[in-house]
TrEMBL record:
One of its GO terms (biological process) is nitrate assimilation. Its cofactor is [4Fe-4S] cluster; Mo-bis(molybdopterin guanine dinucleotide). InterPro entries: Asp_de-COase-like_dom_sf, CT_Nitrate-R-NapA-like, MoPterin_dinucl-bd_dom, Mopterin_OxRdtase, Mopterin_OxRdtase_4Fe-4S_dom, MopterinOxRdtase_cofactor_BS, Prok_molybdopt-oxidoreductase. Its EC number is 1.7.99.4. Residues 59-115 form the 4Fe-4S Mo/W bis-MGD-type domain. It comes from Crateriforma conspicua. The gene is narB. It is an enzyme of class 1 (oxidoreductase). Keywords: 4Fe-4S, Iron, Iron-sulfur, Metal-binding, Molybdenum, Nitrate assimilation, Oxidoreductase. PROSITE patterns: 4FE4S_MOW_BIS_MGD, MOLYBDOPTERIN_PROK_1. This is Nitrate reductase. SUPFAM superfamilies: ADC-like (SSF50692), Formate dehydrogenase/DMSO reductase, domains 1-3 (SSF53706). Coiled coil: none annotated.
Amino acid sequence: MSLVPPESASADLTKGTDEGFRFQLPQFLQARSGAMTRELLLQPGKHGLGMTPDSLLADTTTTATCGYCATGCGLRLHLRDGQAVGLTPETNYPVNMGMACPKGWEALRVLDSEHRATHPLVRDPSGELVTTDWKEALQKFCDGFRKVQQNHGPESVAFLSTGQIACEEMAFLGALAKFGMGMRHGDGNTRQCMATAVTAYKESFGFDAPPFTYADFEQSDCLVFVGANPCIGHPIMWERVLRNPNQPDIIVLDPRRTETANAATQHLQLRPKCDLKVLYAITNVLIAEGFVDHEFVNAHTSGYDDLVRCVRDFSVESVAEESGLEAERIREAARTIGRSSAVSLWWTMGVNQSYEGVRTAQAIINIALLTGNIGRPGTGPNSITGQCNAMGSRLWSNTTNLLGHRKFECEQDRMDVADILGIDVGRLPTEGSWAYDRIIDGIRNGEIRGLWVIATNPAHSWIQRNELRELLGQLDFFVVQDMYRNTDTVAHADLVLPAAGWGEKDGTFINSERRYGRIKKVKRAPGLALADFQIFRAIAHAWGCGDMFRGWTDPESVFQIMKRLSAGRPCDITGIEGFDQLDQCGGIQWPWSTEDSQRGAPDQERRLFADGAFCTDDGRAKLIVDQVSPAPETPCDDYPFWLLTGRGSVSQWHTQTRTDKSPVLRKLYPNQPYIEINPSDAARLMITNGGLVSVRSRRGEVTVRSAVTTSVAAGQLFMPMHYEEANVLTLSHFDPHSRQPSYKDCAVDLEPLKD
Ligand SMILES: Nc1nc2c(c(=O)[nH]1)N[C@H]1C(S)=C(S)[C@@H](COP(=O)(O)OP(=O)(O)OC[C@H]3O[C@@H](n4cnc5c(=O)[nH]c(N)nc54)[C@H](O)[C@@H]3O)O[C@H]1N2
Ligand SMILES: Nc1nc2c(c(=O)[nH]1)N[C@H]1C(S)=C(S)[C@@H](COP(=O)(O)OP(=O)(O)OC[C@H]3O[C@@H](n4cnc5c(=O)[nH]c(N)nc54)[C@H](O)[C@@H]3O)O[C@H]1N2
Ligand code: SF4
Ligand SMILES: [Mo]
């Protein structure tokens, strides 16, 4: 098989799409893929990326981790007089080895924008957002939330945070909001993203512990990607796959023929939401055909008999029919997994964003455990993280888990944290936060009256967002803290706090393979914008709880507090000396305890569970199985299509507040919203490529362009989440265990419109 991307990746894309929807589909498909990334890597500068002439004026350089995706590439920043004037991918970083995708290359450019929030803004009586200073902004912040708490109780104010600020900022926010300001409820956009993987790992391994390291991409002889499209979402991880010397089998489970599926040796193009059945059928074959590693299963797992009983009901033939696959393809995939000596199974949002995502993730975990594919090079049931610091949010956000992945409900845990922080244990809530959707319910029924949103844009990204926008309007007091003042969420705010962004502040991020890496201040934030860290400090002082955070003077001092909070836990980082050591070692993966550090310098690649000892009470990993449930909203006569949503191109990031500020990135994706439709459906409905269509669900209706392509199957449609239209259509429904929204399934109709 060939792992080399199509030759024609060199199509001239600089013609761009700024002036309208003028792309030719084949060119566009390459532009949005990893193939394009490769092209850019080989010839930096060709499309306007890379070293700017200013870089030649640099007098010194430093390194930092990229601030977009959880790959966590190292970037080298070229500085003049202490200010960054250009960047290049870092060659000496174990993650990316000199590669970066277009977002990374353009990371500095998006900081200079007329849309930056440069001053605090407050809504005046006429409804306009007007500029103010920090003194008045902090006064408004405290008066606004205090008034709500006095009238409706301390728990009537909540926060929604993010996987895109530094660990030290997350810890500060969580501690300030809950221990300082008396809030109980605060959740993050990681609920939209990683909650399913967190719950699945916690239940199966006893701790939220992704076991892998990126070297595994290069060491497997079989890689399985379930609901993941790394060519788009994690292009540098995909580059690592391309470096695999073993001519690996690549099995992709995705209803769409994605860029990743195109490069696979086996594409199981299953119907949407059939993964659990298909994975159980694969498990069934593994058991029936003798591929189980009984020695490993007996020594290190529990629940095998229940699993055998459960999957017996999922015969390959019946599942083939229900999932739209050929029985032989399911068998072939199972046998490939069974016969390979190092299998790694990777999953992302096609699994996590599902109403039965946790059990699906656990079906993947089960396959790895049954076949003994864990703790060795090239193996693992591996959830790939989305945002640059989603892993940080899992450990340090103090939302549903107490700091360091402890439990609010556990008295000993509360006492430990109070002791380390030197605060009264009575200040710690005795229960975790409501999940995101419950906070939204709380706004609907008047339990939540004040909301503070930090580094997330829910008015675009939350499921069924029209309703959310209405609810934001019902709040008594609403504060948004963001880098830009033109986001969909800022439009609803009573108060806007201007934040510095990546490149304008210090701290640490944790990438997908558990690697702590540094971000650095290499540029002055515009106007009065402050690092989130400084905003939290100023709020603590204004609120009157500054004393509690006396030692939290800068990110590095908070990192030292985090070390103490991690001691003795599976995420122990007491052996990391400090920020300088992170720089010297190319980042350090957790765990790295004092005891580990006595053995020498940290290895660059470490994986978990090599000894088969898991974090559960009995040390065994749990094989967890469940009933399969039907999708809540399936296509019908009125809404005959499945709508899938997800990432559209390498050059677009989420709600586009950042990526649409780069003229280079804007040339690499269609600027108008579009929906992908199969040629047979397009022909039947007389829809032309690029023509206007109206798309309708039970929640709302939008007008977008059509993109006719065989990458979606007949009866299915795909709309990138980067356009605000997508979540007008989606349906509020959730995984019952993780409360993660099921963004990738709902029923819609579409019809052509006249241009
Ligand atoms: N360029 C870019 N990169 C990004 C991001 C970005 O916005 N832009 N965001 C980052 C973040 S936060 C995240 S979480 C990751 C997401 O990274 P991915 O999860 O790889 O991206 P998605 O496109 O959301 O979803 C992956 C695939 O799931 C498939 N899918 C939909 N329904 C099903 C199903 O029922 N079964 C299966 N098996 N597959 C299904 C979709 O067709 C899609 O191809 O990307 C990260 N990287
Ligand atoms: N239909 C559909 N919807 C989805 C998804 C999907 O696949 N389909 N995917 C979901 C997933 S996986 C995710 S992760 C979410 C992402 O959804 P969001 O978190 O809403 O998306 P972003 O655009 O990343 O929003 C981040 C915000 O933080 C701001 N920001 C950036 N850096 C900083 C900083 O340092 N400080 C501060 N204060 N602000 C900053 C940005 O300007 C931006 O407004 O979307 C979810 N929504
Ligand atoms: S792959 Fe992710 S971390 Fe690497 S440069 Fe691109 S956005 Fe940044
Ligand atoms: Mo995400």
